[in-house]
Amino acid sequence: MIRVLIVDDSALIRRLLAELFAAEEGIEVVGTARDPYDAREKIKQLNPDVLTLDVEMPRMDGITFLRNLMRLRPMPVVMVSSLTEVGAEETLEALALGAVDFVTKPKADVSYALEGYRDEIVAKVRAAAQARVRPGPARSAAAAPPRPHQRTTDKVVAIGASTGGTVAVQRLLEVMPPNAPATVITQHMPPGFSAAFAQRLDHLCAVSVHEAQDGQRVLPGHVYIAPGGYHLELHRDGSKYICRVTEGELVNRHRPSVDVLFNSVATSARANAVGVLLTGMGSDGAVGLGRMQAAGAVTIAQDEASSVVWGMPGAAVKAGHADQVLPLERIAEAIQAAVAPPSQPTQER
């Protein structure tokens, strides 16, 4: 039984979430709290397994409370965020502090909209209960090193991630050099969040990070992130690669889907690609990673110990689609080794 504490300043949201969870087998709402001060006492009394935490609350905002919570009593937290630019930035900060995942709070017709999110909310709470919580302070933006002159790319890195992925992607890109190969990324997130995610990474990394645009040229030293609500594909146009951003059907219940990205990379880049599947709930990307492997690409999966949720990379590993299974801190090095030109044999005199 997963014991859930709901923290939200809205009595309506507290009631709706409590009713939603009450209808699910294996989940028990042990209490609700109207603000962080109330939540602090309820956590001591009720010892919940998972917290749902509103970002915007009176007296103390959710980010400040989360920072204190992760320092004093780390536990799985699913953030409840508003669909606004500010809400997106705060949610990314929460994920960097150690929150497992987030759901978005609808702007209107809350009762009907939350019912539509039932499967997503329940799945994320169940995943959070099994997640490995890794608290850590969000890193402050630093001046990025000089960026490389643009040129046509040949090698391409494709990365897929979901639950826990915003932090994993950040840590991976932060150690990539400014002349890193072009990188395309599908991270599961809703519309309105991907632009803030790209901007955050662009401030932190030596590579230049963008929210991908349809027809955009793909260049080394640059990273392209799938826009929320759209699939991202890599296409070859003569001697160069370009992004294709489409609003196709859901794949594996996702848009953007990692499988869509990986399948396109397998077709367009073949052996000139490296596929990386990071932490995430479900199995999206496992089949696509297998297609990349069959096309000659090097394939890498994050290991279980360093993943928040080992669903997606675990599915790829179990299917035999990962050439290497590595902890997060070793993946950047493995990418660099995979894209390095072969060494020239020494000629004997």
UniProtKB/TrEMBL annotation:
<dbReference type="InterPro" id="IPR011006">
    <property type="entry name" value="CheY-like_superfamily"/>
</dbReference>
<dbReference type="InterPro" id="IPR035909">
    <property type="entry name" value="CheB_C"/>
</dbReference>
<dbReference type="InterPro" id="IPR001789">
    <property type="entry name" value="Sig_transdc_resp-reg_receiver"/>
</dbReference>
<dbReference type="InterPro" id="IPR008248">
    <property type="entry name" value="CheB-like"/>
</dbReference>
<keyword id="KW-0597">Phosphoprotein</keyword>
<keyword id="KW-0378">Hydrolase</keyword>
<dbReference type="GO" id="GO:0008984">
    <property type="term" value="F:protein-glutamate methylesterase activity"/>
</dbReference>
<dbReference type="GO" id="GO:0000156">
    <property type="term" value="F:phosphorelay response regulator activity"/>
</dbReference>
<feature type="active site">
    <location>
        <position position="162"/>
    </location>
</feature>
<keyword id="KW-0145">Chemotaxis</keyword>
<dbReference type="GO" id="GO:0005737">
    <property type="term" value="C:cytoplasm"/>
</dbReference>
<feature type="modified residue" description="4-aspartylphosphate">
    <location>
        <position position="54"/>
    </location>
</feature>
<comment type="similarity">
    <text>Belongs to the CheB family.</text>
</comment>
<feature type="active site">
    <location>
        <position position="284"/>
    </location>
</feature>
<feature type="compositionally biased region" description="Low complexity">
    <location>
        <begin position="134"/>
        <end position="144"/>
    </location>
</feature>
<dbReference type="Pfam" id="PF01339">
    <property type="entry name" value="CheB_methylest"/>
</dbReference>
<keyword id="KW-0963">Cytoplasm</keyword>
<dbReference type="InterPro" id="IPR000673">
    <property type="entry name" value="Sig_transdc_resp-reg_Me-estase"/>
</dbReference>
<comment type="function">
    <text>Involved in chemotaxis. Part of a chemotaxis signal transduction system that modulates chemotaxis in response to various stimuli. Catalyzes the demethylation of specific methylglutamate residues introduced into the chemoreceptors (methyl-accepting chemotaxis proteins or MCP) by CheR. Also mediates the irreversible deamidation of specific glutamine residues to glutamic acid.</text>
</comment>
<protein>
    <recommendedName>
        <fullName>Protein-glutamate methylesterase/protein-glutamine glutaminase</fullName>
        <ecNumber>3.1.1.61</ecNumber>
        <ecNumber>3.5.1.44</ecNumber>
    </recommendedName>
</protein>
<feature type="active site">
    <location>
        <position position="188"/>
    </location>
</feature>
<dbReference type="GO" id="GO:0050568">
    <property type="term" value="F:protein-glutamine glutaminase activity"/>
</dbReference>
<dbReference type="Pfam" id="PF00072">
    <property type="entry name" value="Response_reg"/>
</dbReference>
<feature type="domain" description="CheB-type methylesterase">
    <location>
        <begin position="150"/>
        <end position="342"/>
    </location>
</feature>
<dbReference type="GO" id="GO:0006935">
    <property type="term" value="P:chemotaxis"/>
</dbReference>
<feature type="domain" description="Response regulatory">
    <location>
        <begin position="3"/>
        <end position="120"/>
    </location>
</feature>
<feature type="region of interest" description="Disordered">
    <location>
        <begin position="134"/>
        <end position="153"/>
    </location>
</feature>
